[in-house]
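### Sample
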Amino acid sequence: MENNPLENYKAVYLTAEDLRVAASIIYNAYHDDPFFLEVFGREDNSVYEQKLRAAIREELNTLWQQDQPLIGLFDGERLIGVACVITQQIPIGQSRYWHWRLKMVLGTGWKSTQGLMEKETCLLSHLPSEKCGILQFIALTPTEQKKGNGAKLVEAVLSWCDEQPNLEGMGVFVNHPKHHKVFSNQGFKSLAHVTIGQVKGEILFYAK
């Protein structure tokens, strides 16, 4: 899978060797995300950062092991963006595997793990069918933001989605106006305004 072949950018599936860099990109992008600040706690910054790293590491490993699509945007040989999709071909939300729950509890605590599952359950409840994916993470390195690369990464995800015969579309939870604009410009439509925990946001959906 490639994107924008006339430029120096390419969108391809990540390899196992890319996961460490991917985790770092996601961590930096989501460090100040209101949902994670709510779920992992704002009181102790060092504890918060430890939980966030653990959650991202465990989720990436799980998605990799379950053959879920991990898409990387490269500038030449340099990984500059990551998009992680999870489909309902594996249990998510309150149906998460027990070993995922155990590892996530050990890394983030029971309350935080419940919060992560609550977010997925909320998303699932608003999607039009079980044949829909969820955009779990989407992130760019700080130096590559505000250059149109976010749109390139979303386009790569939607290109992948369009090629999947068993998928009807893609959902995502957004809580920032800037992110809402990027997705809306790529054809995502609003399904619902929701509050997860104390965080208000919107569920957007791309229909094939």
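The CA atoms of residues 87 and 133 lie 4 Å apart. This sample (GNAT family N-acetyltransferase) is used throughout the tutorial notebook.
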